Amino acid sequence: MKKTAIVTGGASGLGLAVTKKFVQSGIQTIIIGRNEENLARVATELGELCQYKVADLGKLDTIPALISEITTEYNHIDILVNNAGINLKKHFTEVSDEEFGRVVQTNMNAVFSVSREVTKVMLQAGTGCIINISSMAAQYGIPYVIAYTASKTGIEGMTRAMAVELSARGIRVNCVAPGFIKTNMSAKALDSDPERKQKVMSRTPMGKLGEPEDVAEAVYFLSSEAAKYVTGVVLPVDGGNSIGF
């Protein structure tokens, strides 16, 4: 039976790389995002194995109906990749409660809500796999990204708690923590901040940025039978950045 996967934020950056890997591997993949134009373009490009749903996951009250709709259409959900996220780069003292809340809402609360609803479906099948996407911001301190850091650290704690509660019931839960990966967004950010770029390179033992495909391969591994005895791990895909000196 063909597997069905949901990838949130699956139309750009790391999410798109994961979507491509899944589709190439014969997995029916539903991408969720806010920008219909982007979603439609990716779905057309990748063919019939890629479908999309337009949704703002920050609106938590819409999530149960969204997952219910997907379940009705596809009968089962085998894999969930919680990749959608937003960032905010600002001095700690300048971040408003509203800004902090908005980042946490999308990056952590929505992950909880989507996972909860998908888990209900997976529990009926007695099998499933959830992969959360974290960040180097949860591995060590990075300045000016307090809300993002809080949300991603929460994701790693949630991964472990979910794994302990769900693994005995057939659902594995793992996390991938990307290092500095070459995407349009990161390239722009680093190129405009030579000091930060130098710091990133100097503490990455492999001495280069990763490719989105490196993250996609790790996500695919964790979702596959090859990882059937792996649960509750946070896997850095970072060229050694998190242990770099």
What does this protein look like?
By secondary structure, this protein is an alpha/beta fold. The chain has a single domain (4-181, 211-237), classed as Rossmann fold (3-Layer(aba) Sandwich), CATH 3.40.50.720. The chain is 47% helix and 16% strand. It has 8 helices and 7 strands; from the N terminus they run βαβαβαβαβαβαααβ. The protein has a 7-stranded parallel sheet, with helices on both faces. α1 crosses α8 and α3 runs parallel beside α4. The model has no long low-confidence stretch (mean pLDDT 96). Belongs to the short-chain dehydrogenases/reductases (SDR) family. It comes from Mucilaginibacter gracilis. This is NAD(P)-dependent dehydrogenase (Short-subunit alcohol dehydrogenase family).
SSE order, as H and E? EHEHEHEHEHEHHHE
Tell me the CATH superfamily.
NAD(P)-binding Rossmann-like Domain
Q: What is the terminal separation in angstroms?
A: 47 Å
Percent range of helical residues: 40-55%
Largest beta sheet, briefly? 7 strands, parallel
Strand order, sheet with most strands: 3-2-1-4-5-6-7
Content-based structural category: alpha/beta
Our count of domains comes out at 1
Which CATH first-tier class would you pick? Alpha Beta
CATH topology: Rossmann fold
| Annotation field: number of helices | 8
* Rg result: 17 Å
> Which residues form runs of ≥5 with pLDDT under 50?
none
Quick structural summary:
By secondary structure, this protein is an alpha/beta fold. The protein has helices at residues 13-24, 36-46, 63-74, 97-125, 146-166, 184-191, 194-202, 212-223, and strands spanning 4-8, 28-33, 50-54, 79-82, 128-133, 171-178, 234-237.
